[in-house]
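lol forgot to send this yesterday, sorry. struct tokens for the thing we talked abt
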């Protein structure tokens, strides 16, 4: 094995990370399924939008703006409010990254 290769912090760490990630995703699905379409879309887009690399925040904000415009135009509340929440999440990511650098 190459000494420069990264090793797991402990045996099975990647499996533990996978289990935690899947459990959080299932929790998000359960929470969002109990909400009306608008808040559910906003919840998902905002939470997942916070995980975006700051380098790509402007592109995701543009996508959120397009989704919001098309969602409101087509009377699709999940898409519309999801787009609004994505724009807000990207603004938060951008400002957080800018403040930290």
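and heres what i got for the seq, position by position
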């Amino acid at each position: 094995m190459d000494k420069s290769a990264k090793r797991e912090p402990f045996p099975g760490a990647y499996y533990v990370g996978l289990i935690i990630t899947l459990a959080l995703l299932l929790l998000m699905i359960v929470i969002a399924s109990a909400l009306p379409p608008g808040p559910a879309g906003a919840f998902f887009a905002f939470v997942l939008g916070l995980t975006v690399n700051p380098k790509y925040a402007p592109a995701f904000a543009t996508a959120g703006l397009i989704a919001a415009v098309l969602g409101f135009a087509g009377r699709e509340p999940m898409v519309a409010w999801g787009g609004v929440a994505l724009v807000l999440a990207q603004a938060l990511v951008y400002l957080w990254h800018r403040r930290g650098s």
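The two ends are 36 Å apart (CA to CA). anyway ping me if u want another try
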